[in-house]
Design a protein that fits this description.
The structure is a homodimer. By secondary structure, chain A is of the alpha/beta class. Helices cover about 45% and strands about 15% of the residues of chain A. In chain A, strands 1, 2, 3, 4, 5, 6, 7 and 8 form an eight-stranded mixed beta sheet that branches. In chain A, helix 3 crosses helix 6 and helix 7 packs across helix 9. In chain A, about 40% of the residues are buried.
């Protein structure tokens, strides 16, 4: 009789054992997979120490899940921004597509230079030229139409150096960091100077970041009826520039509380880095430093895109982590072998 | 031996039974609690039918969790807006607090009328006067300072009719609806003409809606340093009015996708109701109709606050649910017996 009772206990014990093994396996997989494209070193260690401290109850650095908000710049932080912001690539392509409807562009900058393939000429048109370019390519359609234009562009456009789709030009270590933070109860936001409706069609798939967690520059939209069906028209009028000192304002407007984790890569992120690290509780700031001329690009102080000067100077004094892409990242792009 | 094996099986069976009972109890509690302040009738039935259809996989009206977004007007929809918008109550109180620092207000409208307790005089100052009043009471401080001012006000101010704190003047059936939608995988947003930084200090506790899911009117904020500490200053300049046709724009800007559920109570919500119900998939719109002069207020077409005219006229034709507060709600306020 002892044996039979034992048989039943054994069945239960086997189940428990199987369950424990499953948990152990899951933990082991988890331990292996966290930030696996990051080199073992100070950068990875500091990030993990911050996440551990802020998610461990009972410690004085613990942060409740509601306040675990992480903000990420996009261009140069989550994906490449060289040889030019990818949104500029979109504008250049759109000008070529729209040119037949705009014969006047042949004589008008910056369109003339674009159509002649003269990027230096485009740069000469300055901020005024870029704004005009932005309005010509981003306004005049409904929000639904624009989303389709962007989606179609991402499906066909290719990066000039790698020949890969732009939405594959994302940094694997940063995608791992986003996953890791979310697995630890953080909500991850993009806070970018890029146009919000340019980014949204790709952020969910590329980063696991839904549309409502993308903060960016906006143009004015206007409610209208077409055959009694409501649409939102994109007007050629800037609503908000989410860059530099605009980033803390954008964070305040859209999120309404101060993040505790921030990642950027340029002086356009300087005020956001300051804002996040001025919070009363624990906070963490990191700068992606582009140091890898072979696998990506090497640039900082004199770059036209992603100039990193002031933030780099102050990083040590402010205890901001500077991530060296060449040394700290074992892998950069998803398509690398 | 059979007996002993049986003893072990019995233990297991007891556990399973206890577990099933627990589930049954939980379900029963759930069934009792869903929309319990709503009368059994067409309104409640229609709401529950929509939620069931959109959350049942395999049906043609099923909506994936990512797209289950519900938007709610605040004033008159989630809480009362009578005898005046509560944010106006805040402004009136602030003018009294700030008056000693502004001797010039004694001779200047709308401040003069406010200090004389003459609400009709305030109304006479028109939109220009109200904007001036808003700027005088909402700008000139940092965002942190303003949050404290609002929090302190909510802690002490009382509704002129009920004598209750304003954040208890919320509608219990709507709070139940928010809970019910969230329990079914919806994300609930406020989309209000009210100031976003006026609402955020109370929405989490009152509605379970976190700061980042509150969309409202905004003023311009500016990044600044005080003793080398970053602050955001609230400037006396309107950034965005989230009302009427502005509501679809606000939804697009902040959420970036079209909600499938909307609740409003006035013509200021008309375009938002149109926008949501013009989506390609299933959608649901409801209007809170203030019909209860005894427990709350009765008003619609001629009201200064919460005028409901066009939306009411078109509700039947557009299949928008009109909720009759008197008949459809068994309870209105949390403090009712």
């Amino acid at each position: 009789m002892r044996m039979h009772a034992h048989r039943s206990d054994t069945r239960l014990a086997s189940l428990v054992l199987a369950f424990l093994l499953l948990i152990a396996a899951a933990n082991s997989v988890f331990a292996q997979e966290v930030l696996s494209s990051w080199s073992d070193g100070a950068a990875k260690t500091r990030i993990m120490a911050f996440v551990k401290a802020t998610t461990t109850e009972g410690t004085d650095r613990y942060v409740a899940p509601d306040d675990r908000i992480a903000v990420f710049d996009n261009d140069g932080t989550l994906w490449s921004e060289q040889p030019f912001y990818f949104q500029l690539g979109f504008m250049l392509d759109r000008v070529k597509v729209l040119a037949p409807q705009h014969p006047e562009w042949k004589a008008k900058e910056p369109f003339k230079s674009i159509l002649a393939g003269d990027l230096a000429g485009v740069a000469k048109s300055g901020e005024k030229g870029i704004v005009e370019l932005g309005m010509a390519t981003h306004a005049g359609m409904t929000t639904d139409e624009f989303a389709k234009i962007v989606t179609d562009w991402f499906a066909t456009a290719r990066h000039p150096k790698t020949g890969k789709p732009y939405n594959e030009m994302t940094f694997v270590p940063m995608r791992e960091l986003l996953d890791y933070l979310r697995a630890n109860g953080f909500r991850t936001y993009i806070v970018s100077g890029g146009g919000v409706e340019f980014m949204r069609p790709m952020t969910e798939k590329a980063y696991g970041i839904p549309a409502e967690q993308v903060i960016g520059s906006t143009i004015v939209t206007q409610y209208d009826l077409v055959d009694d069906v409501p649409v939102l028209r994109r007007l050629p009028k800037i609503d908000f520039i989410d860059d530099g000192p605009g980033k803390p304002s954008g964070i305040n407007k859209f999120i309404g509380r101060r993040p505790i984790f921030v990642a950027g890569n340029s002086d356009g992120d300087y005020e956001m880095l300051r804002w996040v690290t001025a919070g009363k509780g624990p906070s963490f700031a990191m700068i992606v430093h582009h140091t890898d001329a072979t696998r990506e690009y090497a640039y900082d102080r004199k770059s036209a895109f992603g100039k990193l000067d002031k933030a780099l100077d102050e990083a040590a004094q402010r205890n901001w982590l500077v991530v060296d892409m060449k040394d700290d990242w074992k892998k950069i792009y998803p398509f690398e072998q």
